[in-house]
Design goal:
- The chain is α/β, with parallel strands linked by helices.
- The protein has helices spanning 8-19, 30-35, 42-56, 67-71, 74-90, 105-116, 139-148, 164-167, 177-189, 236-240, 253-256, 262-280; strands at residues 23-26, 62-65, 94-101, 126-129, 151-157, 198-202, 221-223, 247-251.
- It has an 8-stranded parallel β-barrel with strand order 1-2-3-4-5-6-7-8, surrounded by 7 helices.
- The longest helix has 19 residues, at 262-280.
- The structure holds the ligand O=c1ccn([C@@H]2O[C@H](COP(=O)(O)O)[C@@H](O)[C@H]2O)c(=O)[nH]1.
- The ligand O=c1ccn([C@@H]2O[C@H](COP(=O)(O)O)[C@@H](O)[C@H]2O)c(=O)[nH]1 binds next to strand 8 and helix 11.
- InterPro entries: Aldolase_TIM, OMPdecase_AS, OMPdecase_type-2, OMPdeCOase_dom, RibuloseP-bd_barrel.
- The active site is at 100 (proton donor).
- GO terms for molecular function: orotidine-5'-phosphate decarboxylase activity.
């Protein structure tokens, strides 16, 4: 039986305050394996992922493995993902598994067992989830997260341009789908201190205003899209307004393309962390 963890909002707040808010994605694209002179194989995948862990897990607040790049190698890739998560957590990083799961409630129950049960070999501190089968269908994820001190990042306004056709569609109540998702997430977080376990994914690339007061979420805001997708740390203020304190800015390729040298990865990530801290108004301490 594993010891109960503190609530995710408190753990994330502490980690961001101590290390700075940067999240680095572990996205072992085939092209990146090649540019690191690694084979496009399970061995290459493992070397890549564990090199990122070695370089950054003791330094950044959050590491975010992208499950798809591990799944493409089948069960052997999943075994590498398990090891990556375990070693990153052991080194002190919070792990957000970017797996974007969502289904009918009875099936979500099993996904929640897979990712948010401390006895699972894929246990992570948080997962990304898709609410497009209805926010209510995510209930098993939310319950399990609350039970075990984990977090859930619900896709709201994603960084890709195609997302808008769904997320900015207007519901019968006259609000956008994305805003309706955020309102339900905010209701779930209530007045939790320092923030609740239900986060949202809001892209750092967005240029149209977000039709929701993001500070009212009272939860973490995972902001992918920095670097390779065109988002910049300086642009975060325009996207997130009053909610800057809860933003977890995320970069993958922008950092990873500098590998495989560990000191170089650290130097690039340190610069990115500095840029994000400055943009988000953090003190200069931290990675
Ligand atoms: O809205 C979203 C949600 C998730 N992602 C994920 O983040 C990384 C982005 O990688 P970069 O190399 O920094 O572009 C990737 O794993 C996506 O699946 C996102 O980009 N946007």
């Amino acid at each position: 039986m594993t010891d109960a963890l503190e609530p995710f909002g408190a753990r994330l707040r502490t980690s961001m305050d101590e290390r700075g808010p940067l999240c680095v994605g572990i996205d072992p694209h085939a092209a990146l394996l090649g540019s690191w002179s690694l084979p496009d194989s399970v061995a290459g995948l493992e070397r890549f992922a564990l090199t990122v862990v070695e370089a950054l897990a003791e330094r950044v607040a959050v590491l975010k493995p992208q499950s798809s790049f591990f799944e493409r190698f089948g069960s052997a890739g999943i075994a590498v993902l398990e090891r990556t998560i375990a070693e990153a957590r052991a080194a002190g990083a919070l792990v957000v598994l970017d797996v974007k799961r969502g289904d009918i409630g009875s099936t979500v129950e099993a996904y929640a067992d897979a990712y948010l049960d401390p006895d699972s070999s894929l246990f992570a501190d948080a997962v990304t989830v898709s609410p497009y089968l209805g926010f209510g269908a995510l209930e098993p994820f939310l319950e399990r997260a609350e039970q075990h001190g984990c977090g859930v990042f619900v896709l709201a306004f994603t960084s890709n341009p195609e997302g808008a056709t769904v997320q900015r569609a207007v519901t019968a109540d006259g609000e956008t789908v994305g805003a309706a998702i955020l309102a339900q997430a905010a209701a779930r977080n209530g007045g939790a201190e320092p923030m609740g376990p239900v986060g949202a994914v809001v892209g750092a690339t967005l240029t149209d205003p977000i039709p929701f007061d993001l500070a009212a979420l009272n939860g973490p805001l995972l902001a992918p899209g920095l670097g390779a997708q065109g988002g910049t740390p300086e642009g975060l203020r325009a996207v997130f307004g009053d909610a800057l304190a809860n933003v977890v800015p995320s970069m993958s390729r922008e950092i990873l393309r500098n590998g495989p040298d560990v000191p170089v990865l650290r130097r690039v990530a340190r610069q990115a962390a500095h840029d994000c801290r400055t943009a988000l108004g953090y003190p200069s301490a931290g990675f």
